[in-house]
Amino acid sequence: MKRVKITVIRMARYDDLIAKYENPIEHACNMKEGQTFISDGMERPEGLCESAWQSMSAFVMTLACGGEDIYDGWMKNKRSAMISCNDGFRPVSFLLETME
Known about the structure:
single chain, 4-stranded antiparallel beta sheet, elongated, alpha+beta
């Protein structure tokens, strides 16, 4: 299996939705833009949010197993994918790239 590099590309925050719908919480997300993780395709890298991993793990496994061109031409780099976590208040976008 190939290793997959996971890079935090962008973090958003929707304060209006947080104020209207979310109960206050202390540490919702500890990711930082530019932060990277390496996955073997099977296991969540240490430090990567469990919820984010659930959103991307199928894509990571596909790339780790040599899959390319996910969704038929979606990405310029056929051995990559752009995935966001499922936090509707502070979504984080991750770039997944197969490593050689």
